[in-house]
């Protein structure tokens, strides 16, 4: 539990003066993400910048230093019957909140509870000029200035070092249960979307290995009444199953030999016809694919499904791993990068080869 | 900052008329008059001209011409904004999106709607109702305000705490850049690769691009909604009850609060049966499945009683629910009846500060000699103080503005912010200097330049020029008197 922001700031200023680049590292559990880190760059370690700065359970707001491990945050919240509603994946005990935001990672409840980006209220950011800036705030609604806080979600640290995050937290649901039944991949898209269109307390929907899993949570009476109306068997260890999905510990994700692709697409779109295994989450909006492929070949399929594809883990990480950007958007993103990090210090080439 | 435009009004109009129906290139003062302000009518300016394109391609051509000639462009939806964000620039073009008013598609299975930017907020829910769906954010102006404007302001409404703001309820935005390119940010998926430009666009007040299409998420309409009304004889108790409900684990669909002045005005107007002697009134709406609502309503009633409510009433029918809400929803016009004019403020505070802020506001009310009524979204700490004044009394509006400034600064002092949902626009541009330092404001300017290198989109709004900030900061905080308004104006 320490505030090392001054030290981090000096490191950035030093890098700026000496023309060095910096790779940002928190808990070091997400090194597999993005493109290969620049081997010539130094390390900017935010992992020691930890601690809960402010937490008022009544406000449902938590302010925390970026290097704080998720496990510590979740334990603190649990004491007050609260949780991180976006169910952040943990790739190890060291996974931090800062990395979660930079990578925009959210778990199975995301379509209903929102993503990490949705829950962020404000941040402190160390930009490439070594300025320690504050954006957003600690209140639910704040529309003063551009939403620089949420802009960071998915930027993989290319716009600066997130040092502190204020976010919305939520009460833990009083009750939760999971319904499971066998279903083919062809039927499941329609089924999950139909269920999601009903005004019922559904909070997760995924499909893997020929089975569809629906989670209901909220007031006990509402959960039980819905479970009685809907088909499927009540799963005995439902919470454990979803925890595995959240942390990508489900066996579908095991092993590094076969590349893991992530399709973020329209929830009702047809699943691309590819040779390999699928894990459909977020009621169809997030589809994981394990199989060989080329980004360029998969992109048209993702586009046809209304979305984008990225190479989440494995495969060639020296080429592009994120969906191709049109020229006009490339230009805007280059200029945004330049606005935050004019000397291109942070995570060079990690997001795109051209950034 | 824009430089001086390189074309005359006549030349510009002629160019626009070569590809836009000449009737929709407006240059005469009489027809332009309705465009001189938005919902914040205290701030007026006549534009150079008004143009109403009908296609995206026309919008692109307008932007290219304006960009080449350094002509400011102010995009405009229904003009219901409350921070003068759509106030014209006297050397610029008002780009009205009023003709883009078509609901392109509703996909009930995907729970999404594709909309042109001029579609009214309420029209989305009305159209989606046939599928048992609705659009979440419901700003008070929803009958008139448009989805394009909602994106520009990141509009909220009564149901934000549970259902989020505009930023949480949209999938993608198609926009025309300052340079005339069409780009789509976001997708049909719930996120896209790389930095989140969709979030950056949302709430950018027309400074980064012109929205030409929006895809929104739709939600299943809850089976049941019931409202509990609780009266308190003390503001502190009312404020505590807001936190009490939430920390009990109930996230209400809406949680609204009114102070004593607003209660009486609203009850006179709507005859909602409010406890007229109460100092604070809470309306707590719970929605969900029948079972869930039944369970939560019982808990809410108990929490309110425990926390000292002097009266608790739960709606037993849809009619009763509508009646209880009627008072709240008509609170603004109701307050309008008891005063010649009112000024609606918008700031956000941490919920725990509600009682403190309301008490301080009462003191300021005496200091400034102006009445204030409070109606607000208590669930997310979003205040809407209504300052009552008479514009015909010389100096009274200036005093009102000074009072308003003090309220916003107090919001920042207690850890809140200067705007929860109305935006900065022109109205709050001075207070930006209180919430942000120069480095932060410069970062905003740099972001703007990334989208709009020539600075033609809504110049002079949202983010103040740094030189004015120093001035404002040094004047503020030292002398909380009436003088500073004049100084800041000058």
Automatic annotation (TrEMBL), chain A:
GO terms for molecular function: catalytic activity; FAD binding. The keyword Flavoprotein applies. Pfam families: FAD_binding_4. InterPro entries: FAD-bd_PCMH, FAD-bd_PCMH-like_sf, FAD-bd_PCMH_sub2, FAD-linked_Oxase-like_C, Oxid_FAD_bind_N, Vanillyl_alc_oxidase_C-sub2. SUPFAM superfamilies: FAD-binding/transporter-associated domain-like, FAD-linked oxidases, C-terminal domain. Coiled coil: none annotated. Keywords: FAD, Flavoprotein. It comes from the Bacteria. Residues 1-172 form the FAD-binding PCMH-type domain. This is Glycolate oxidase subunit GlcE. It comes from Marinobacter guineae.
UniProtKB/TrEMBL annotation, chain B:
Residues 43-221 form the FAD-binding PCMH-type domain. Keywords: FAD, Flavoprotein, Oxidoreductase. One of its GO terms (molecular function) is oxidoreductase activity. It comes from the Bacteria. Gene3D superfamilies: 3.30.465.10, 3.30.70.2740, Uridine Diphospho-n-acetylenolpyruvylglucosamine Reductase, domain 2, Vanillyl-alcohol Oxidase, Chain A, domain 4. The keyword Cell cycle does not apply. This is FAD-binding oxidoreductase.
